[in-house]
DNA sequence: GTACACATGTTACTACCGGTAACCGCAGTC
DNA sequence: GACTGCGGTTACCGGTAGTAACATGTGTAC
């Protein structure tokens, strides 16, 4: 067999006490191998490839993760947790609201800029092949990352900003809208790079600050 | 067990006189069959299923559309054109800017509300299985529909709103941000239905009108 | 020591997918 | 007739997710 794995198995013959830990360790090793493959081959990496990278064969992967979407979910959770943590600290770093917004936007954009493969993987989740029986579940389109982001941001807004009666609902709406804006603009920016990151952050913050509503009409604006 | 046992054996004597059916007609028929299947089975409908629905077999589909992504592109173009046309008229319907924004948002949301399958298909494009040789093209994540929407809205904003020097770039940034906001919030709303469409439209317009920036801090807001 | 249970791993398979080669039969036209 | 183009098919290829069955080591009970 091929000795492709980077870290050699520690050759540890005594495993009587820590069998449970061994399973956890193994699982983490498999996840790391999967990570390497997914980041190299894209989200449609095959289970065979992942198994080969881990130095084992498919059925073991299935024993650990159930199916492909299970593996991908586990993989996505790790990265999502990381990004969420970064965003939480960003949201708490400043006291001025505008600064907070800009800082958060910048953190997100920096993340997707420095590791676009991770980003792409998180946005194109499992795409679970076996359609769930009854025709077409409308829900569950967006990547779970965006949902979680939206919900977290919603609670943050709701508990920090006074929006009057019905403010919680409004906060959630805004949160999902803001996350969508961040995602959409970030995705476009990442692929076209039309400006600097700072420029993008400022422009989006300006948009959220209502500059669109106060700008003047263009003199010869077509009304066709 | 599925192959060849389906109903495609219709003797079909009604084809002798009028073979005037040009390739275009055939193509449109195939597209309509594909539409039916995709709207029934979701975006991962198989070519076999589409061919069966059209009463023919796979190779004919491939002769007409090249490959699966070709078929899906043709399919997506139809729907995209329809939605874009609706949005264009919505954007021109009112003179007041706020009304225009609300009207446009509402048109988009109404579209995805009344035909969520179409919407889902447009947002999860081909996902072309054969990864394009060189590792991992970072660009081309988002559905083409969103890109087109963003670009069109960008030109509309640029030509109607006076944003000063560098306004065109700013308009494009805002446009992609707004489209992302619309998409993200719409997707979340569609799957959770936390409020009425009108409520969502108003809230998003409020967000764009800068209400977030002028709201008061909550008294006991945690600063942890 | 032997027997059992269990975790870890393998090979070899099914069922299906996108895509293609090769062939078949029927129009029309010299 | 023969020859060509076209709409159609069957039968295949390579690759995918997922599984069954079998092979091992390893710790524990008797």
Short description:
Chains A, B: Residues 1-27 are annotated as: Disordered. Two copies of one chain form a homodimer. Chain A is 67% helix and 2% strand.
Structural commentary:
Two copies of one chain form a homodimer. The first copy, chain A, folds into two domains: about 45 residues, Arc Repressor Mutant, subunit A (Orthogonal Bundle); about 120 residues, Orthogonal Bundle (Tetracycline Repressor, domain 2). In chain A, α3 crosses α4 and α4 runs antiparallel to α5. By secondary structure, chain A is mainly alpha-helical. The N terminus of chain A is likely disordered. At the A-B interface, α6, α7, β1, α8 and α9 of A face α6, α7, β1, α8 and α9 of B. β2 of chain A pairs antiparallel with β1 of chain B. The structure holds a DNA duplex (30 and 30 nucleotides). Chains A, B: Keywords: DNA-binding. Chains A, B: One of its GO terms (molecular function) is transcription cis-regulatory region binding. Chains A, B: This is TetR/AcrR family transcriptional regulator.
